[in-house]
Amino acid sequence: MIYDYVPKEYEGNILKYKYSGVDQSLLYKYIFSPIANFSLKIVPLWIAPNTLTLIGFFFILIPYLIFAFMFGNDWNPDVPQWLLFITTFLFFTYMNFDNMDGKQARRTGSASPLGMLLDHQMDAMIVVLEAQNVSQSVRLLSTINSNFIFACPAYMFYITTLQAYYTGAMELPIINAASEGVLSVGLFLLYTLIAGQDAWIQRLPWFYNFTVVHSIQILFLVLVVTNAPFIYLKIYRKNPKQFKEAFLNSIFGIFIIVSNWIVILISPANVGGTHLRQLFMITGFTFSAQVGIIQVYHVCEIPLPILRLPGLLINGSLVLNTILAIFKLNPLPEVLLLNILAPIAILLQFHFIFNMCRQFKKVLKIDLFSLQYLQKQK
Fold first, then answer.
1. Residue 244 CB: number of other CB atoms within 10 A?
2. C-alpha dihedral, 261 to 98 to 370 to 290, nearest 10°
3. d(CA 363, CA 195)
4. Digit-coded pLDDT (tens) for 19-31
5. What tens digit of pLDDT does each residue of 166-188 get?
6. Longest dimension (CA), the chain
7. CA atoms lying within 13 Å on the CB side of residue 52
């Protein structure tokens, strides 16, 4: 269905938008960026940046589909070595492509708000897909642990997007989820490939007898604790009048992200244990669509409502139905509601991507996967 996410009166702001952002990570500056620059030497100038973005997305989607087909909702599987290798190799390759697409855009003079939005949308969806790949690869053993691997990076992604909306710039600190956080995921996969899945359940006597798998949670928590307060502080300093609105917006995002935990903890039917993948799809794609809406509103300078209907209806109905199930008052069986909401969340996400690309292409008068328009301008 055709739908304009940007009202007509705001379309002119698409043409005025100038990206403002910086990644202060030393890891990005001295390792990731040089590798991407070197890799671009073999990429032809006629390759559109959005093509690199889409290829990078498929590097994550392919292992996800294999995991989903082979293991379904088994979160303690014996993953074959060949699949661990493919997942690890393609993840590191995705990391490089994720840095290459923006550089290719600047290299070809084709940088645009559409390319930025598409790149961030792919990254947001990758958060939920890769969380599932990692969960089954490293044997997180519990649904709570698996959801933790999704919730922390999703939360950081969400509030960083809010920072861009309320301050006008996306500023990533010296240690951030986009660089160090992403690398940590790759290292988890590499460690699993080399040491085996059982290495994660070994206990560490020198570290309060925690299992190695707890290192994932601790590292992710450290990234959140060391980054989130500074993001809120930047918003407050740059835009104190709207800080309350920004904070409430972050609470709405937290509700969407942690609704999985609510269902996992209180579901009488234990749908978190039996249908976690569907839960991931509902919360993950609702999260990524909400991130996309914030970014579009940022580009077009549209006032951002605190409560946005798709997220409120989908995740709200999920949580409400689960609470009612405790008292046997739920209007729909829990599993049935999951199987209804999961495809709805996925369809709404791709409905947003399709219509966002369609509208921005029309306003900017550019192609999505071609640089032919540049040749016409020369």
1. 11
2. 20
3. 51
4. 988 889 999 999 9
5. 999 988 888 888 898 899 899 99
6. 68
7. 27
- Ramachandran category for residue 328: left, alpha or beta (phi over 0 → left; psi -120 to 50 → alpha): left
Give the predicted TM-score (pTM) of the model: 0.93
Dig out the tokens for 232 from the structure.
Answer: 């809120």
Helices first, then strands: H and E counts in the chain: 15, 4
Round to whole Å and give the CA distance between 189 and 79.
12
Closest CA to 345 of 311, 305, 306, 308: 311
Backbone angles phi, psi at 21, to 5 degrees: -175, 160
Rounded to 5°, angle at Cα 293 from 244 and 253: 45
| The token pair that represents 245 in the structure block | 């609105």
Direct distance between the N- and C-terminal alpha carbons of the chain, in angstroms, rounded to an integer: 36
CA proximity to 103, closest of 23, 172, 159: 23
